[in-house]
Design a protein that fits this description.
Blueprint: E1 2-4, E2 7-9, H1 12-27, E3 31-32, E4 41-42, H2 47-66, H3 73-105
């Protein structure tokens, strides 16, 4: 990482890759279908969830590896349950909104 007057910054290439990936994901109409449901989800709808879960996992793994002594198993289990329940509640919210939207159009 380059240092600009004592401030650590990402190299320009990394920021361009991150911006390019974000642009592709948000502008492309990716379709996701779960089971026999008639609703179709787009990846763009799940971007807030992805931007919450992925950094949480990366940061927690780094912290759990470098903490001395390692955290108790109940802490790790609690964190996993937190991520699962946050993902489940987000998915159910998206599903409810799409059902309401579908009912309004009929």
């Amino acid at each position: 990482m380059k240092s600009n007057q004592g401030i650590e910054t990402f190299p320009d290439g990394y920021l361009q890759i991150i911006f390019f990936a974000y642009t592709i994901i948000t502008t492309t109409n990716w379709k996701l279908k779960f089971g026999d449901e008639k609703m179709t989800y787009t990846l763009k709808q799940f971007m807030p969830l992805i931007t919450f879960v992925v950094p949480s996992i990366i940061i927690s793994v780094i912290l759990f590896v470098f903490i001395e002594p390692p955290p108790h198993w109940s802490m790790i289990l609690g964190f996993v349950v937190l991520l699962i329940m946050a993902s489940f509640s987000y998915f159910m919210g998206i599903k409810g909104i799409l059902k309401e939207k579908d009912a309004e159009t009929k």
